[in-house]
Amino acid sequence: MEGFYSPVQVTSWLAQGRALFLVIHFLGIAGFCYIVARRLVPLVRGERDLRFDRPLARLGRVLKFWLGQWKHPRYRTAGTLHILIFAGFILLAMRAFTVLIVGVSPDFVMPGLGGKTGQSYNIITDYAATIVFLCMVFAVVRRLVFRPARYLVPAKYGKSHTPDAIFLLVLIAILMVADSLFAAAKAAAESQQGQPIEALAVLSLPWILKIALASASLTTVGKFYFGAYLLHEITFYFLLCYRPFGIQFHVETSLFSIYFAKLDRGTLKPVRWGVGDEHLDEVKSFGVKTFEDFTWKHMLDFYSCSDCGRCSDNCPANAVGRPLSPRFITIKGRDYAFQHYPMFGRSNNGKALIGNVYSEDEIWSCTTCGACEEECPLLVEYIDKIVDLRRGMVDDGKVPQSLQKPLKALESRGNPYGKLEKKRADWANTKEFQQACTVKTLDHKNGADTLYFVDSITSYDDRMQSIGRATAKILEHVGKNFGILGAAERDSGHEVRRFGEEMLFIGLRDHNVEAIKASGVERIVTADPHAYNALRHDYKDVPPVEHISQVIAGEVKAGKIRFNAVANKNNVYTYHDPCYLGRHNQVYDDPRDVLDAIPGLKRVEMARSRDRSFCCGGGGLMLFYEPKEEQRMGVKRVQMAAEAGANVIVTACPFCMVNIEDAIKVAGMEGKMTVIDLAELAEQQLARESQRAA
Amino acid sequence: MARIFVYIAHKGGMADDSAAELAAAARKIDAAVLPTAVVTGSGAELDATCAALRASYSEIWKIENEALAYPDAELVRKALVKVLPPGSVLLVSHEHFGIDLAPGLSIKLNSAFVSDVVEIAGVEGGYLKAVRQEFGGQASAHVHCDISSGAVVTIRPGAFKPVANTSASGLVVDRSLDVGTLTAGRRYLKTVVAEAGDVDITKYKVLVSIGRGIQEKGNVEIALELAEAMGAAVSCSRPVVDAKWMEKSRQVGSSGKTVKPKVYLACGISGAFQHLAGIKGNPFLIAINKNPKAPIFQVADVGIVDDILEFLPELTNKVREMRTASAK
Amino acid sequence: MEILVCARRVPDTSENEIELNSAGNDIERDELVYSVNEPDNYAVEEALQITARVGGTVTVATVGGEDDEEILRREMAMGANRAVLISDDAFAGSDGRGIASILKAFVQKGKYDLILTGVQAEDGAAQVGGMLAAMLDYPFASLVTSIEVLEGRKLKISREIEGGNKEMHEIDLPCVLSIQTGINEPRYVGMRGIRAVASVPIPMFGTSELELDPNTVGESAAKVKRIDYFVPALGKGAEMLHGNREENIDKVLELVAAKGGLK
Prior knowledge:
The complex is a heterotrimer of chains A (694), B (328) and C (263). Chain A has 694 residues and is mainly α. Chain A has helices at residues 8-15, 18-45, 55-67, 76-102, 115-146, 162-192, 205-213, 218-242, 250-259, 296-304, 310-314, 316-319, 326-340, 360-364, 371-375, 383-395, 401-413, 431-436, 456-460, 465-477, 494-498, 502-519, 529-538, 548-557, 589-596, 633-643, 654-666, 678-685; strands at 440-441, 450-452, 482-484, 523-526, 545-547, 572-575, 602-604, 648-651, 674-677.
């Protein structure tokens, strides 16, 4: 028996509308093509972005993040909803096309979906449409009644997005109803006429609607059949053409935004793709100043944002009341594109972004922690855009006064404090310390196979120097042949780069790379995650680098380090994941393994840990910036630690240490909460009788 | 030795504190020479000032002119050029008026100029031997100034201790007629008074004063908490205002407020003289600073080398403890 | 408006602790980092803002040697249209009056409506601006914290006086103003800007270009001479407390209470 065939009666109903349907097809498709073409105009004008390499890796990500909806379950309710809707759409795609074509070519059967396959497909899609419909209802109720906080639009960003969201949800629901009604009417007509009918899925929407039509006359059913078809076609094409005007454009663009997403974590976009460092002096303008300075991929990101708010929900700057909300970086960018590249008429481009779309403080507020990028299901990139906007501001001289001083000091002295280069290694030369540990400075006389890259804060800050000393003692204890660059070391430049001063960064980097190469070391160790990230991702041609937590964990696993039990068994420890060790470089377990190797150490996890860790406030130049905020990030983090039941926070980053120590004082929790660096704790607990394995 | 003149600034019929300091400086130049006061202005206030000066100056030159009712340096300069004999030495206080007046005056008088002098060791062979400070007070320098054809010298406020003046003949000489009409390429319009802030630091007996050492706006709280615990107010030095961490009304110094507290805690303040110039009445000065070489330790009564970000919170806790203990 | 800013290269003192050299007659200069005198930088920024509003050019000049070119380049990178190095062996050892004479000769070689200097440099003398104005017979104002351009070749300026108050004046052009820090927020000059001007030629003016009599400048003409640097014998100074923090705190509270500072 044929599967899906069009009995004469049914066909004749539709036949009357054929011309109309054709016209709608034509208008819909032409409209969509025109709209998409207009939407592509700014992308064509945008800067180049080299994202065409490693197709297999990119396809893999499409499978994981697009098809596999990998990030969605991070928000359970919305995630589940979306997975169901997405699966429904994928499943329904062939059915929708079939329905569309049937109005013009009544005998059309989608290739591969004939016979039993087709019938099974229809059963599945009956349920799919039903589930999508129910999801729509649930989503509308959620928007209107439960109103999740992250959807809220603060007054300064304009009107609420909820009406538009509900409009779209309702339209999709209508589409499902139209589709179901179409199937139901057909089945009802066939059953009235005594013709063989294909079974509708039990309890599905079409099934329910068929029952509702059971008592209607054939003529009425015919009217519903025709009406449902028309409604389906109009709604389908309306949605198709409306989607590119708002957040639903992600339906089309998500595949591309995910395919072309950045593959290498922790790296930064170059000032200009295809322009090497040696040619940067020839580049006329650095960074993003007007919309057209964005690359096509970043513009695509603006189109792809689905306004889910997960980024801002996790953004620490947003949480403390800084003027930054990542969601609105994207939404405002998108709105700019829509406004300045209209459907009809000339594009009105080239306006300065800073001061018109984004404020200076908004862009300087970002600590580059990466929480936003970690959440975004569409893999929208934020850090590169912020860095590019900063590059533009630096190029125009618009740098806050509070940052000008450390930048100038970095230029003249190689550290943001303006302290003398020759004092960079003083931390290792105190009388007391020299008795406990020898730290050699690498030069033509002294070599080693391991470099301990100390970086500026650990070298110069009185408090952080103890992290340096602890790290050195540990390295000595495990028998590493190591040395430091001493006065030849400059700031790693990690934040210099992320604050938009690319040329100064290049100067610092080149100086350090030369010094590292001259030292002849084969590996690098650092206790500073920012230096770690810089050496791993911003620097080229340097030996492999490890963070001290990885070194200790390795030694513990190899049995070469044993720890003494903690003195105070009542302390409850919690580990705070530094952004540049955890999220950006995915070193989550090594520090935990180290803590768990200390006997008697009770450890708890904060609710926000690992890749959901909450930034302490930022490092490097961020320590000098004076943000407008309601609260310090560090204070929030200390409160989170207290909520988790801990009274000792362990960090593995000197900047986290500064921010959290400060926060403990500001929050008035002195005596109730302490903080210690992982290296300090490990060194303190070292069981020194333990000999290295022979 | 040529005549020594001292320019007297005055307000409301009273001479500025600098008058006595300048007289002391004049004595250091040449104890044998009696300095002459020079006062400009107009009306009853000028007369009152001249009358008051008779007790400490043997000769007072009064220059009265309507145009000089407000002390505008451009006009005062023109008047002095007409009145001062060639080769004179003129002392002026090194503050905003002196800075405005003195350098140009030395050119018009064709005499030497040396400014912001903190010490004078007399005259030798036509050279005035003085001490100045450079690099924000981090280094001192001996300077020799050829005063053989006269000099204009500005004196750092507070550097010379006033000396009880014994001579009292107080002759007022009216030199107004030598001046004629005064016009200049600059015209004084008005003075805009600073907005009163929420706290009037001049009214407090104890001030917790912060400088650059507070490092960032967020740390200002630390000082505010200490001040609250002590019943004091927080004041600050110029860099704190420039960085917009506190309002201008909190600034102590030559371009800020002048305060006369009983106790002054200088926290993270280096001790540049522009700040110290705002502290009068010789309060008990406690300085806390990370840098053992900070110039503030020269003028403080008690000094502690420590990090204010750590010291102050602990001090606050102790004060609070003491209060709760005494309340019981 | 044609604006000339007279700038100076000075040691960066804010972080560096100035020390005496081993001979004890000068400060240790080996490891000093130099930069443009901060008030001069504010002056250049102010000049740039004025010309952005009313048109014109900004020239930055310094009296010095080759080493001083770096600050001229920095100010060009900031946006100054032109930079000039005023240099001659005869200028060495000039006192403030000598420098002002040199600058006066330079000013007279051009046509400037407004001349700006910083209120003072590292020697704290605060003299060159006032002297220059008097030599040129231009009106002068020091400690300027705001500039407004008026019609008819006039400016309205404010001066910073005590108590946070401001003196408002009207001043005729051409004039000389010495600029106080805080008048504006200077724009950032990045490495890129500096590299862009690294090879721009900077014209040099000496005694012949200035038609200046060498006997009026330089060491021989100087009336004020610095003999040496020294660190004054500490004298009494403060009584330093050497206990641990807790002890110091107790002592402080004791003293404060004794002085009536605690109720």
